[in-house]
Amino acid sequence: MTADTIAAPRAPHETPRPRGRGRNLEKLGWLYMRISGVLLVVLIFGHLFVNLMLGEGIHGIDFAFVAGKFASPFWQWWDVLMLWLALIHGANGMRTIVNDYVTGATTRKVLVWALWIAAGFLILLGTLVVFTFDPCLGVDSSTTDWLIEKCAAG
């Protein structure tokens, strides 16, 4: 092999299956990464624009700002969609890296399972936080007037 040639790629870890009419999970993963990537760009830049450019900008972000956003179902779903897409996108990317670089079949399976369990736990926890967020929990006289009035009325 000369210095100007590229080494042949490693052999696949598993024997390739004959192409049938079944689902191709790798193709679905590849498509998911492209589609979710485009959606994430829109969601993230929309999130940044609303939080940083409108109103008082970064100086306006405080507990009351977050409480106001989470009071709206639109922003709840926006943030949950962003959370789900980002975590699944990241876990799928890590799965690809594990499949490419981990040579032991058992180690690879353990790592992929650990990735999906961690992603599932974070998705569950994040979704619960967004949909069960209660801004009135622990409100006292030191909080903002807007929040005290809202919690007193509710």
Automatic annotation (TrEMBL):
Region described as Disordered: 1-20
InterPro entries, per database record: SQR/QFR_C/D (IPR034804), SuccDH_FuR_B_TM-su (IPR000701)
Compartments (UniProt record): Membrane
Transmembrane segments: 31-54, 74-98, 110-133
Taxonomic source organism: Microbacterium flavum
Main localisation: membrane
Name of protein: Succinate dehydrogenase hydrophobic membrane anchor subunit
UniProt key word Iron: yes
Keywords: Heme, Iron, Membrane, Metal-binding, Transmembrane, Transmembrane helix
Gene3D superfamilies assigned: Fumarate reductase/succinate dehydrogenase, transmembrane subunit
